[in-house]
Automatic annotation (TrEMBL):
Belongs to the ETF alpha-subunit/FixB family. SMART domains: ETF. Its cofactor is FAD. GO terms for biological process: fatty acid beta-oxidation using acyl-CoA dehydrogenase. Keywords: Electron transport, FAD, Flavoprotein, Mitochondrion, Signal, Transport. The electron transfer flavoprotein serves as a specific electron acceptor for several dehydrogenases, including five acyl-CoA dehydrogenases, glutaryl-CoA and sarcosine dehydrogenase. It transfers the electrons to the main mitochondrial respiratory chain via ETF-ubiquinone oxidoreductase (ETF dehydrogenase). Heterodimeric electron transfer flavoprotein that accepts electrons from several mitochondrial dehydrogenases, including acyl-CoA dehydrogenases, glutaryl-CoA and sarcosine dehydrogenase. It transfers the electrons to the main mitochondrial respiratory chain via ETF-ubiquinone oxidoreductase (ETF dehydrogenase). Required for normal mitochondrial fatty acid oxidation and normal amino acid metabolism. GO terms for molecular function: electron transfer activity; flavin adenine dinucleotide binding. Heterodimer of an alpha and a beta subunit. This is Electron transfer flavoprotein subunit alpha. The keyword Glycosyltransferase does not apply. Residues 21-201 form the Electron transfer flavoprotein alpha/beta-subunit N-terminal domain. It comes from the Eukaryota.
């Protein structure tokens, strides 16, 4: 029995020793997308052997950026026209080739549109089950994720030889961008050529990006029209905030759907979240309830948003918001 216990202990230690994680970097060729730093922090919880794959075209700046991130040991660099637009069809064979070469036990990325698009394909090709949007790592094979719009936590043990997962950025601190000195190594794969990236048109905005903003001002159906969102934009500009919205506001056509916060929108956890004319349906709360301080402005004192709010103002938003903006001008 003693020998069995010892063997178990030894194999446990060996498992921890031989963890190695690949983080797939999301970037724009010029800049690393911040949530990659959160994914790197998650990877570090699995052990010290963290590599980061930077694939792209002319992405030398990002390679430099990543090599300085604390905790990254090696940067795998892949530059080719085929990686333009970071298409999953082209990145997957590259990740599979890297996995074969370096025997990674874990492969992860942030749970953004990029990660959600890529990693299920990688998992399918490896014939393993992907784990999406994890919020905690209990051990190298046990992860926590939310279910039922964040109303329950599910702890999942993964028996697959390679664990493939996406990381909810708001649940892990960003890794420090200085202090690391990773080695660089080139990796390649042959282009597949089944799809081609043509162009992308991004909405230009001077405001901070919704998922990384420190302050978010969100509007709901209570705003009544798209034009009235100007009230929120004016307030947001005073607070250097991003503007978000409930699904009802998006469905009514007040604002485009990239502003949607919630279960089927973006997940945010800013220092300050101001919910204006939003009732607080569970599907909305799923996207913002981890915010540090929540302020709710609603004319209905019974609105469920007040149950999660740190500060609640029962008032007509058409009066309260201009007053707040005015007060901030002083
Ligand atoms: C599968 C599924 C997924 C979903 N995903 C999401 C999601 O990702 N994000 C999301 O937000 N929703 C989502 N929903 C929808 C969600 O259930 C709600 O319908 C939605 O969040 C309601 O939006 P709202 O709070 O803006 O509108 P309402 O519920 O209509 O609330 C409007 C609020 O404005 C207040 N108000 C009105 N006039 C004023 C005024 N003059 N001054 C102050 N307050 C005022 C009212 O008192 C009310 O509380 C989802 C639903 C389903 C079924």
């Amino acid at each position: 029995e003693m020998r069995m216990a010892l063997t178990r202990m030894l194999s446990c230690c060996l498992i921890i020793l031989f963890q190695s994680t690949l983080v797939v970097a999301e970037h724009t060729n010029d800049k690393l997308t911040p949530l990659t730093l959160n994914a790197i922090s998650a990877a570090r919880k699995l052990g010290d052997d963290v590599s980061c794959l930077v694939a792209g075209t002319g992405c030398a700046k990002v390679v430099e950026e990543v090599s300085k991130v604390l905790g990254v040991k090696k940067v795998l660099v892949a530059q080719h026209d085929a990686y333009r637009g970071l298409l999953p069809e082209e990145l997957t064979p590259l990740i599979l080739a890297s996995q074969k070469q370096f025997q990674f036990t874990h492969i992860c990325a942030g749970a953004s549109a990029f990660g959600k698009n890529l990693l299920p394909r990688v998992a399918a090709k490896l014939d393993v089950a992907p784990l999406s949007d994890i919020i905690e790592i209990k051990s190298p094979d046990t992860f926590v994720r939310t279910i039922y719009a964040g109303n329950a936590l599910s702890t999942v043990k993964c028996n697959d030889p390679v664990k493939v997962f996406t990381v909810r950025a708001t649940s892990f601190e960003a890794a420090p961008v200085e202090g690391g000195s990773a080695t660089k190594e080139e990796v390649t794969s042959s282009p597949v050529g089944v799809s081609e990236w043509i162009e992308q048109n991004l909405t230009k905005s001077d405001r901070p990006e919704l998922t990384s903003a420190k302050v978010v001002v969100s509007g709901g159906r209570g705003l009544k029209s798209g034009d009235n969102f100007k009230l929120l934009y004016d307030l947001a500009d005073k607070l250097n905030a991003a503007v978000g919205a409930s699904r009802a506001a998006v469905d009514a056509g007040f604002v485009p759907n990239d502003l949607q916060v919630g279960q089927t929108g973006k997940i945010v956890a800013p220092e300050l979240y101001i919910a204006v004319g939003i009732s607080g349906a569970i599907q909305h709360l799923a996207g913002m309830k981890d915010s540090k301080t929540i302020v709710a402005i609603n004319k209905d004192p019974e609105a469920p948003i007040f149950q999660v709010a740190d500060y609640g103002l029962v008032a007509d938003l058409f009066k309260a918001i201009p007053e707040m903006t005015e007060a901030l001008k002083k």
